[in-house]
Amino acid sequence: MNALSYALLCMLARRPCSGYELTKLLQLFWQAQHSQIYPLLAKLEKDKLVTFELVGQTGKPDKKIYSITDRGIAELKHWIQNQPPSMQLERDEFLIKVYAIGLIQPEAAEGLFRERSEALAARRSRLEGEIRLMEAEELPVTDFASKQFGRYLLYQRKLRLVSEELDWIEWALPLFRLSRVVPEPKA
């Protein structure tokens, strides 16, 4: 099984979902396409790690709602406890552009950073909203036994990473203004 298979089991350990819902939930920490998810769900079902229930829909094909099985829970527990995670791969087009940012004009560089800042501010706002919703639920999200506990930790991490990058952008922006200052010729 690959890491995406385990990611699907993790999502299903929290609650039953359709393939579409799983794709949306995974976006928090994994970029996966429907074309990747559905074959994996079929394999997980064949391996008896998940099961599904067909739900009829008016005017649309029936929808499969997937649930994790006891065997899937056991497999997931084993994976979490016994297999160390691989190192994080980071692919960020923005950071590639930052590496060579000296090739463009300071005004354009500043614009690139401001666009990133706006996008991150919107993301931070969404994350804060999700965290508030989790915190408003009856069972405390800081309770280890809560099904929301892991999700809460993940959202808090994402929020901190976004906030840290926003701080870094604020630190960097004055550097572009300084590079526009042309030194006066020496007499």
Summarize this entry quickly.
Helices cover 61% and strands 9% of the residues.
Q: How do the SSEs run, as a string of H and E? A: HHHEEHHHH
Structural class: mainly alpha
Lateral strand order in the biggest sheet: 1-2
Count up the helices: 7
The coarse silhouette is: elongated
Number of beta-strand segments: 2
Question: Which regions are unreliable across 5 or more consecutive residues at pLDDT < 50?
Answer: none
End-to-end gap: 71 Å
Kindly report the average pLDDT value. Answer: 87
Based on CA atoms alone, the radius of gyration comes out at 22 Å
Main β sheet profile: 2 strands, antiparallel
Helix-residue proportion: 55-70%
Beta-strand percentage range: 5-15%
Number of domains: 2
